[in-house]
Amino acid sequence: MKSAEKLDSEWNYEAKVAEVEAIIASIEAGNLDLEEVFEQFAVAAKSLCECETFLRERQQQVDLLIENLQDS
Q1: Cα first-last separation, the chain
Q2: pLDDT of 31
Q3: What percentage of the chain has pLDDT greater than the value 70?
Q4: Are 1 and 21 a contacting pair, CB within 8 Å?
Q5: Do the Cβ atoms of 54 and 5 come closer than 8 Å?
Q6: Cα–Cα distances in Å, from 61 out to 5, 54, 58?
Q7: Are residues 32 and 26 in contact, defined by beta-carbon separation less than 8 angstroms?
Q8: Per residue, what are the HEC states of 3-67?
Q9: CA dihedral (25, 28, 30, 32) positive or negative
Q10: How far apart, in whole angstroms, are the C-alpha atoms of residue 7 and residue 5?
């Protein structure tokens, strides 16, 4: 998996979350055949992993900033 730093410059956390929410709504509505459900589930899982990586990296940055403030 790519790190959030290496993600395409078009990558956007809020857009990924909206994409996952749309996939969930579509699956819950029953508008997809079974094969499409699995394909969309895989897309959602990948997007969630990207979001998790993004958040983890941002948390590390915040932790480092806090540590630097405390050392000052």
Answers
A1: 36
A2: 87
A3: 89
A4: no
A5: no
A6: 12, 11, 5
A7: yes
A8: CHHHCCCCCCHHHHHHHHHHHHHHHHHCCCCHHHHHHHHHHHHHHHHHHHHHHHHHHHHHHHHHH
A9: positive
A10: 6
- Residue type present at position 50: E
Length reported for the chain:
72
Q: Return the amino acid letter for 70.
A: Q
Q: Which residue has the tokens 């990296």?
A: 57
72 pLDDT exceeds 80?
no
Rounded CA separation 53/62 (Å)? 14
